[in-house]
Design a protein that fits this description.
The structure holds two protein chains of two kinds.
Chain A: H1 2-18, H2 24-38, E1 40-41, E2 51-56, H3 64-69, E3 73-74, E4 77-84, E5 93-96, H4 102-109, E6 115-118, E7 130-135, E8 138-143, H5 145-150, E9 154-155, H6 157-162, H7 167-170
Parallel strand pairs in A: 2-4, 2-5, 5-6, 6-7
Antiparallel strand pairs in A: 1-9, 3-4, 7-8
Chain B: H1 26-29, H2 34-37, H3 64-70, H4 75-79, E1 85-91, E2 94-99, E3 122-129, E4 133-144, H5 148-152, E5 154-156, E6 162-165, E7 173-187, E8 190-208, E9 218-240, E10 243-258, H6 267-270, E11 277-286, E12 291-300, E13 303-304, E14 307-308, E15 311-321, E16 326-333, E17 339-340, E18 353-354, E19 356-363
Parallel strand pairs in B: 6-9
Antiparallel strand pairs in B: 1-2, 3-4, 4-7, 5-6, 7-8, 8-9, 9-10, 10-11, 11-12, 12-15, 13-14, 15-16, 16-19, 17-18
Classes of the chains: A alpha/beta, B mainly beta.
């Protein structure tokens, strides 16, 4: 009986570890993704039914993104998150975690009305639209407005005002 | 928790993590605006996110960029960028840095003090109201642990007589600090932050005269008490991405009194030399991608003892980001007057501060 109890406690402890929340960084980034959707306009007809926020390769958000999107809708469209193993046409937002090679996903997104969001230093240079950057512990972001326009997306001026100019563009 | 600085300096790291009224999670995060998300420090060990805009404490953030653009080169100058912090320079190497009063030659109420065995409870509450309003309140008790200065200082006159001596029985000074704050961001371009506070101090350091006819040695004691109360107001304004301004005003009223039976002869006039009014304005303009202009204004009210007249001063910086590796800047400080005093206009060891202009060249490799 005692062993059973001990095993139960260990099992509970393990389950508790598994159930832990994702790092704050990804909770914040998930909230950003939800906010970005509110400030970006997709071309007419691009969003048909549910608006999909896709994460490339693996899911660093845990349940945070699902929790945030649950019950939310934008302009009458439900929003849902999913993880994709390859670039997919049905994604309206595509988040590429930093340890997932972005080039292949960005190639797949090219020309499609897909808001690509990354978190690696060369994400903008590789053709991405929004890139998360760290600034003294805070998460900020840069936006390549040209890349957004090429994808057929309109980014609101309010979001652009809060963004940093990507280093690559600022140096021009 | 810290002492008078409980509510002052802006270190998010010092935020009391235990103080939350509820457990924010992803559901709370999603209610935050992008501006608020941008203020969350994700490097904090605590798993609960705490955007500065909703923190249940008085807080003001100075970023590395603010410090660079202000053109300041010392820590003391950098902390003046935080709301509610008053810096009075004695000379080029010594400052008094205070928040909510008690500026003194040995200003001592600013550090975070942790004292074994002392009871330092801290209760905070916060209400998140619609339209990005935060109302918060807190009551905290804190102590200032005795230092060697109080324990075993011995100051001798030139003739060898002891003028001041420490006191092994010196007890920790205490404060009970109550404060209420309100923060609102009515529009993305405007943020307002107001705090009123009342601090009640007890066992404040005194200088006790001996009982006999001989006036020395003075012995360090605990026989003063006092209060400080005031208002801290900060307004952020960013009408365009390229132009932002910050205005801050602090009203402070400090009063000290002797306990019944006190034989204090010095503490009343040496423990607190604070301005009642401090006004600061900081404005930053990006003239182009490469040229930035910053200006700072400060008006400091009169100090009572030693008396220092009120003064206003201005500083400006014109910076040119010449290339990815080279920055040039022209920095002017204390521009309005040929010279001014900040703490003591007459005594030895205190300087008058003069207008200065310098060019700064920075190369990065």
């Amino acid at each position: 009986m005692r062993y059973l109890l001990a095993a139960l406690i260990v099992a509970l402890a393990v389950a508790r570890t598994w159930a832990q929340e994702p790092p704050l960084e990804y909770q914040v980034k998930a909230a950003y993704l939800y906010n970005f959707v509110k400030f970006v306009e997709w071309p007419a007809g691009a969003v048909d039914g549910t608006l999909s926020i896709c994460t490339a390769g693996r899911n660093p958000f845990g349940d945070a993104l699902d929790d945030i999107l649950r019950g939310e809708s934008i302009a009458g469209h439900a929003i849902a998150a999913r993880v994709v193993a390859a670039p997919q046409a049905g994604c309206h937002v595509l988040f590429v975690p930093r340890d997932v090679p972005a080039v292949e996903y960005l190639r797949g997104a090219r020309g499609a009305p897909m808001l690509t969001v990354g978190e690696s230093t060369d994400f903008i240079a590789q053709g991405g639209i929004i890139n998360f950057v760290r600034d003294a512990g805070m998460i900020r972001f840069e936006i390549d407005q040209g890349a957004a326009t090429r994808a057929g997306l309109h980014v609101s001026s309010r979001l652009l005002r809060l963004a940093r100019t990507p280093a690559r563009l600022g140096a021009r | 928790m810290s002492y008078r600085s409980i509510a002052s300096i802006a270190l998010l790291l010092l935020l009391p993590r235990q103080a939350m009224s509820s457990e924010p999670g992803p559901q709370d995060l999603k209610r935050l605006s992008i501006e608020q998300l941008m203020q969350i420090d994700v490097t904090l060990a605590a798993r609960r996110p705490e955007p500065i805009a909703t923190a249940p404490t008085a807080i003001s953030v100075v970023t590395g960029d603010d410090i660079r653009r202000a053109g300041v080169t010392t820590i003391a100058d950098a902390v003046t960028l935080a709301d509610g912090v008053h810096v009075a320079r004695f000379n080029n190497g010594t400052w008094s840095v205070t928040a909510r009063g008690f500026a003194a030659v040995g200003a001592n109420k600013m550090l975070v003090m942790i004292s074994g065995g002392e009871w330092q409870p801290n209760v905070r509450a916060r209400w998140l109201l619609p339209r990005q309003q935060t109302l918060w309140g807190s009551v905290a008790r804190a102590v200032r642990r005795p230092t060697r200065f109080e324990d075993d200082i011995v100051v001798r006159l030139p003739n060898g007589l002891v003028a001041v001596s420490g006191n092994e029985d010196f007890r920790a000074e205490t404060v009970v600090a109550a404060e209420v704050g309100y923060r609102v961001q009515p529009a993305p371009l405007l943020g307002i932050d107001a705090t009123v506070f009342h601090h009640a101090y007890d066992r404040v350091r005194s200088q006790e005269a001996p009982a006999g006819a001989v006036p020395i040695p003075l012995v360090v004691g605990n026989t003063l008490n006092g209060t400080s109360h005031g208002l801290e107001l900060g307004v952020n304004l960013q009408p365009f991405a390229a132009w932002r301004s910050h205005v801050a005003y602090t009203f402070l009223d400090v009063s000290l009194a002797r306990d019944p039976g006190s034989r204090d002869v010095g503490g009343l006039t040496t423990e607190a030399n604070d301005p009642r009014h401090v006004f600061t304005l900081r404005t930053s303009v990006d003239l182009s991608q490469r040229v930035e202009l910053d200006a700072r204004w400060r008006s400091i009210g009169e100090l009572p003892h030693p008396r220092v007249p009120s003064y206003s001063e201005a500083a400006a910086r014109l910076g040119w980001h010449a290339s990815a590796h080279v920055d040039l800047a022209l920095v002017g400080e204390d521009l309005l007057h040929a010279q001014h005093a900040e703490f003591n206009p007459v005594a030895a060891g205190f300087e008058l501060f003069q207008r200065s202009i310098r060019a700064v060249f920075t190369a990065r490799f």
